[in-house]
Write a structure and sequence with these properties.
single chain; 502 residues; alpha/beta; Nucleotidyltransferase, domain 5; Hypothetical protein af1432; 3 domains; six-stranded mixed beta sheet; five-stranded mixed beta sheet; 47% helix; 17% strand
Amino acid sequence: MHMGNRLAAVDLGSNSFRLEIGRVEHGTFQRTEYLKETVRQGGGLDENRNLTPQAMQSGWDCLARFGERLAGFKPGEVRAVATQTLREARNRDAFLQRANAILGFPINVISGREEARLIYQGVAQMLPQSDDRRLVIDIGGRSTELILGKGTTPLVMESFRVGSIAWSNRYFPDGQFTKKSFAIAEIAAKAVLDEALDAYHPSLWDTAYGSAGTVGAIADVLVAAGWPAGVVTQDGLDWLLDKLLAAQGADRLKIAGMREDRKAIIGGGVSIMRAVFSLLGIQTLAQAAGGLRHGLICDLLGADNHEDDLRVKTVRRLASKFGVDTTHGERVGRVAIQLFGQLVGTNGSVPSGNNGRLFRKLAWAAQLHEIGSHISHSDYHKHGAYILDNADAMGFSLSEMHRLSLLVLGHRGKLRKLEPAFDEPDLVPQLMALRLAVHLSHARRDPDLVGMSLTRLDTQGKAMQLRCRAGWADAFPQSAYLLREEAQAWQKTPWSLEILEC
């Protein structure tokens, strides 16, 4: 449980960037400040899926203002995530490198299903306890998340690449509203969402809830026109469509409750909402108070234990799905952890808190290092890296999954393939510990590590030494051979590994 008295969540959405700040009182979060800026970064992807310089600058400017407000917050008090636009952007690393420094806290790009999990978590914690089966819908700027859940537990989660900005740019590029453009936009949205029909069939849920911007924008207009507060109905959507068609264009739209920043993307939002209603047989959608940023706050309140429990479940799920030998994976993990602990000066013990995350991620990489074996034995490390780079893994950000994929890719074979990533902090010590652990465990039984130590020989940490007890090499000649081969592999890199007594 988080023990401080303040928390903050930053949500870098495709349409808006949001900052939620509050205090923890008696174990619950109470908002003290909420900032929202319409950055519309989702409209700043060019034809090559790169963020334009203008889109990057507008994002950095907003984060600078958020960063000033977050001055003095501790790392464990803030969580920041980015969603579909940065999932798509080919140059996201260029944006994030500066964005992290400007905000003062790391920004994690999360997968679509992880976004869906957080949305449901945020919605559920703002609703009264109930045994109802819940459908939660979040129509964002470039993606739409659908979640089925019960209580606080999400059961089915999916993210679809259809959103209000993307649809408005594609089907209403000149801001003109016609029956034909709405019909085409709605059909196109149904085509993307069609696979959701079976998983989210009306027989599988009792109440439908809508979260975030598009739902809120539509609900505001309906309330201003006298419709019931807190819900969006099919009749209300029909009325709103008639109003948009009567206006003929976003620039001529004058309607109570419609914010100026929503006019340019309301066409896309309404067409997607109508597609969801039609496809899933929704008549009434209740407006939910919670959303993604509230889900982030829930994770912060749960702190490391909740987050790591979720990640452990994800690792186990992946191992089971791809038929990994979990006993061997855990064996390699124990050896890697012991060697890594010696290398970083913890004498093989695992520290707690943030310092322990490197150890836990190394253990997860070890548990999954053979995940690609189900596809191919000879190149299983390459297939395993691809699986991890493209898996929807609850609890993990995309960058965290990429780190695991690098370790899996590099646990065997030539090291040259990882040279572009060698500058990543702590990657090389983790990688060396994992490679040595794989070699030492080659017989698929617990290796004899008595008297074995892995240490750094220089202050820069690029020269390592593995020392074995006298007679170890004679007792385990195959292992000794593999270790000598490993030392030769590291000679082709800026790092070196010296083997003594082995």
